Input
Amino acid sequence: MLRKTMLALADNETVTRMVTNNRLSRDLAFRFVAGENFDESLSASHNLLNAGMTLTLDLLGENVTDPDLARQSAEEYCTILDRIAETGTNSTISVKLTMLGLDISQEFAHDLMIQVLDRARLHNNFVRIDMESSAHTQRTLDIFYDLHKTYGDTVGIVLQSYLYRNDRDVEDAIEHGAKVRLVKGAYAEPETHAYPRKDDVDAAFRRQMERLLDDGNYPAIATQDDAIIDVAKGYAMRMGIDKSRFEFQFMFGIRENLQYQLVNEGYNMRVYVPYGEMWYPYFMRRMGERPANMLFALRNIVRS
Ligand SMILES: Cc1cc2nc3c(=O)[nH]c(=O)nc-3n(C[C@H](O)[C@H](O)[C@H](O)COP(=O)(O)OP(=O)(O)OC[C@H]3O[C@@H](n4cnc5c(N)ncnc54)[C@H](O)[C@@H]3O)c2cc1C
Output
């Protein structure tokens, strides 16, 4: 319910203006967003890198339907890959196909992805395609598997456990040797496509995580849920799966103590670092995931 409301507010212009112009809500947002540009995101991530964590940089942006804007996003992704190489930062990138014009056409986004992947290959880096709403799932997977034939482990995908289809998608990914980041799923989905109950989502995540730990290609377990993280650690230990064969991924600014704890225990830990001027919808999704964040934000906005 809260998540649906926050996602609706993310599209409301008046609320957008209120939140983005309010100093306190901006301060709160920048606990989850690493800055408005590449340099700010690197300074905000300095301590994580020093502690031995790796990053995936995520340029925040919108679904674009103007081809020039999509080309511009592809250029920006390529520049980020250049800057990562220049600065020697231990970071990959995550991209959204709607920023590359997926809603203009599948071919258009596919061709722009080729530009980005060529640049990633040049720098020996890796590009993860984020997964968006269920309206984009099949098109995203089609593009991914086509590119995977040529680019192999230079490209990876995200699969969402809240979708009923996800057990099948996990098996397909295993069969193709594709690199998967497993997440619960962040969009407001109808009951026809996704489990409405959190318990069912958590159960699906555990089941699919175990499949990927058994037979996946360096799976990324992307959750801040400590109960599930404990299950992953226990399962890997029981099955003799070495810590080097998978990684945990957290979002920037969320449960930092646990991030440090995991890296100190010898696990691979990658932090998803969102940055950019278009931070508002990302911030609203994070607010919707946790009532405590929302209450804190509302109190601060009303007080100011
Ligand atoms: C690295 C990474 C990449 C992701 N990529 C995608 C993607 O491509 N597509 C997609 O749909 N989703 C993506 N997500 C989001 C994901 O789908 C979930 O919405 C999100 O991770 C929250 O779920 P959870 O697994 O942490 O579990 P939850 O059950 O939601 O949370 C578990 C615990 O984590 C903490 N927590 C979780 N969220 C917050 C928060 N916002 N603020 C403070 N504490 C919090 C709380 O303590 C909570 O009790 C990604 C998540 C991560 C970590």
Observations:
- Residues 34-278 form a domain with the TIM Barrel fold (CATH 3.20.20.220).
- The mean pLDDT is 92.
